[in-house]
Design a protein that fits this description.
With 369 residues, the chain is an all-alpha fold. Helices cover 59% and strands 2% of the residues.
Length: 369
């Protein structure tokens, strides 16, 4: 029998949260392009993912207030972060440990998604601050969720333009159907395990370079080109000649271009111009033109995200942390949906190893020798 490697093209379940059908990304039926163009807030999209409907003005105001008020960490978590966040391990490994710890403190049996999301955002911001040798920052009740997250990471309160752009970045990363980390979270949720166990598993999956970690590899590539003062096209040709994968290009679903990348490209250009990083952006455009002409490969969501995070002043090792912060909202939506199904995910496999062996016969042969 022929099997799709990596479950490519296999429909394993139903969902009302998001869709990539016909290479169009929608959240509960709304296109992400329209949501981004309308300058929706991150909280509004989180509400949409969790309840599959848009909130009223009163609901949104209360939802935002509730989330912001919960962006506080337990003392035990802070003590651990101060101890481990500067360790040489990858920041995603630190987040993995932190997420697990969050599931053991402050009466977590009664933690619900709003509090869990709020604590995850604050924990990620805290990891970044500690690694930058900067003090923790308390949440500002006058700011929204995305603005607070950006402020608590960078120490700078965003102006209206940056606020709008960063809200869009978080929205575009909020969910993406049954991607690897989301499906991992759903598998754990199907066992009726707790929320924090599901998120810990999702963080582990997102860490990999073929998933969330790809944005770090993109920036490593850009830095290598810049540091060597090498022609970008020659660099790519050499990498391809060595059989290396060019990170940030192609997508299993979007064969004609990632809709998120088109929006992020404009944001990357604006931020690059404002922060004197146009050299990076110009290299990206040269590479994108070449890869499209040579292999018909389009940039994916990780390609421009790498430059955006750099322009925000973040170290490349923390890029995937920010993606995890955005994606936690979607992970929680899928965990809630999977728990409502009350169905254990347990697929079958086709065994292709040796058959008809006899342990007694084989051990007798060994003894005879």
């Amino acid at each position: 029998m022929d099997h799709a490697k990596g479950l490519a093209g296999i429909v394993v379940d139903e969902t009302k949260i998001s869709s990539t059908k016909n290479e169009k990304l929608t959240y509960a039926g709304y296109s992400v392009e329209e949501i981004a163009k309308a300058h929706a807030s991150f909280e509004e999209v989180v509400f949409l993912l969790w309840y599959t409907r848009l909130p009223s003005e009163d609901e949104l105001r209360e939802f935002r207030r509730d989330l912001v008020s919960k962006m506080v960490l337990p003392a035990e978590t802070i003590r651990l972060l101060l101890y481990i966040a500067k360790e040489p391990q990858h920041p995603m490994s630190i987040l993995r440990t932190t997420t697990s710890l969050l599931g053991t403190t402050n009466d977590v049996d009664h933690d619900e998604p709003p509090k869990i999301l709020a604590k995850m955002l604050t924990a990620i911001a805290a990891i970044i601050r500690i690694r930058d040798d900067e003090p923790f920052l308390d949440v500002d009740p006058e700011l929204g969720v995305a603005d607070n997250f950006l402020y608590m990471m960078t120490g700078k309160k965003p102006n209206a333009e940056l606020s709008q752009m960063f809200n869009t970045v978080m929205i575009l990363h909020a969910d993406h159907e049954f991607n690897a980390s989301t499906f991992t979270a759903r598998v754990v949720a199907s066992t009726m395990s707790d929320y924090y166990s599901c998120l810990t598993a999702a963080v582990c999956a997102l860490k990999g370079p073929l998933h969330g970690g790809a944005n770090e590899r993109v920036f490593e590539m850009l830095n290598e080109i810049m540091s060597q003062d090498e022609d970008p096209i020659d660099f790519i040709k050499n990498e391809i000649g060595r059989g290396r994968k060019i990170m940030g290009f192609g997508h299993r679903i979007y064969k004609h271009g990632d809709p998120r990348a088109y929006i992020l490209k404009d944001i990357a250009e604006k931020l690059a111009e404002e922060t004197d990083n146009m050299d990076y952006y110009n290299i990206q455009q040269q590479l994108a033109d070449y890869m499209l002409e040579k292999d018909h490969l389009h940039p994916n969501v990780d390609y421009y995200t790498a430059l955006i995070y750099h322009c925000l002043g973040l170290e490349k090792e923390t890029f995937t942390l920010v993606s995890a912060a955005c994606r936690t909202s979607g992970w929680l939506a899928h965990v809630m949906e999977q728990r409502r199904e009350k169905t254990l995910i347990r697929p079958n496999s086709e065994y292709v190893g040796p058959t008809n062996r006899s342990y007694l016969e084989d051990t007798a042969v060994k003894e005879a020798r």
